[in-house]
Amino acid sequence: MKRLFWFLILITSLNAFAQDQQDWWHKHIEWGGYVKYLNTLNFHDGKDLLTDNLWHNRINFHLYVNEQITLNAGLRNRVYFGDLIKNPFYRQSLVKDEGFVNLSNNIIEEPNILMISNLDRVNLDYTYQNFELTLGRQRINWGKNLVWNPNDIFNSANFLDMDYEEKPGTDALRLRYNVGEMSQLDVAYTSNKTFESDQSIVAFAFHSVYKSYDYQLIVAKYYTGTMLGLGWEGNLKNFGFKGESSYFIEDANKVFVGSISLDYAFKNGINWMVSGLYNGGFDTNDPLAVLNILDSRLSAKNLFPSRWAFYNQFGGNFGAAWRWSFGTVYGTQNKLTVLIPQIQYSIADNWEMEIFGQSYFADIPNIRQRNILTFRLRYSF
């Protein structure tokens, strides 16, 4: 009888401990992510067919230590196999980690298969009253425009990379201070591994509201020069109106990059958006610059392989489960044109299927048109 008593005490204690652990887990831990499969066909006029396959898993993790401290992490696991992975230049573009610390690991490296595990987010966030301090790999998202973002000086991204919705992060120290209810002062710093001054960015951004517009003013030491920036988003009558501009000064070299966009929702459910870019950092003397159009990491001084570029998109829904869009990009350099059709089907709450294409045209001798067609199946958890 005494043994039974102590056994019941032990079971009750373990159950209480497990319940406490479970309650602690639900209170302090949050995680989720997705698993995607992509099959991509790359071809020219139905010829020179290349196939590529990708299994892409992402896990987002948040540990809320207490009301002030949060640990955030984002892990990408990717498995590539097919024809494109045999190209050494394409393979190299996938494995490089340009951060302060190398957080990528090539788990499998074979001629026909490549598996990469990469932490593209890992940072510690501390809040105290009106202050918020974030240290580590993070996304400093100062972009306002829908396509091109000259104000994203820390982690510029290529909008044509349609399978990386989270976009790249950067290893940085960031401090935000809320000035009243509607304004915020934002200070951020990043550098290379040797903390060299000419390889660092220090930026100050002031975010606030004027009438119906959110706006920001940016002043930065941008590598070896200076950067001044302005961004806004609001409404122009019934249109959404967004824009950004950045002015880079480095000795006698001055570069202006600016973009604006308008978007409108029609009563029949059709959405329309148009955007324009002036890309002052583009080198007009490089005739093959368009071949770098799919670079995943870009510079805020050179966001597209053309001095002028324009984007136009229509989209809408077919019933409750289907969504479609069609986008067109035009760059004046070499008459660069990209057609981007896309259709998406929601299979269930956590399942979706998508087919999207990218057709590239350019007036360059001996360079042929390329077409990319991608099928994507995604499960979110």
How does this structure look, described?
This protein is mainly β and 381 residues long. The protein has one domain: Porin (Beta Barrel). 9% of the residues lie in helices and 57% in strands. It has helices at 2-28, 88-95, and strands spanning 29-44, 47-64, 69-82, 104-110, 113-128, 131-138, 170-179, 183-190, 201-210, 213-222, 225-236, 239-250, 253-265, 271-279, 308-318, 322-331, 336-346, 351-361, 370-380. The chain has an 18-stranded antiparallel barrel. The longest helix has 27 residues, at 2-28. The radius of gyration is 24 Å and the shape is globular. Residues 1-5 have low confidence and may be disordered.
List the helices and strands and how they pair.
Layout: H1 2-28, E1 29-44, E2 47-64, E3 69-82, H2 88-95, E4 104-110, E5 113-128, E6 131-138, E7 170-179, E8 183-190, E9 201-210, E10 213-222, E11 225-236, E12 239-250, E13 253-265, E14 271-279, E15 308-318, E16 322-331, E17 336-346, E18 351-361, E19 370-380
Antiparallel strand pairs: 1-2, 1-19, 2-3, 3-5, 4-5, 5-6, 6-7, 7-8, 8-9, 9-10, 10-11, 11-12, 12-13, 13-14, 14-15, 15-16, 16-17, 17-18, 18-19
What labels describe this entry?
single chain; 381 residues; mainly beta; Porin; 2 helices; globular; disordered N terminus
Largest sheet: 18 strands, antiparallel, barrel
The CATH class label is Mainly Beta
Secondary structure: helix percent: under 10%
The CATH topology assignment is Porin
The number of helical elements comes to 2
Q: Spell out the helices and strands N to C.
A: HEEEHEEEEEEEEEEEEEEEE
* Average predicted confidence as pLDDT: 89
Unreliable spans are 1-5
**What's the end-to-end separation, in Å?**
48 Å
Number of strands: 19
Rg, nearest Å: 24 Å
Q: In CATH terms, what is the architecture? A: Beta Barrel
Q: Can you identify the CATH superfamily?
A: Porin
Q: Indicate the overall shape.
A: globular
- Residue fraction in strands: over 45%
Structural class: mainly beta
Question: How many domains make up the 3D coordinates?
Answer: 1
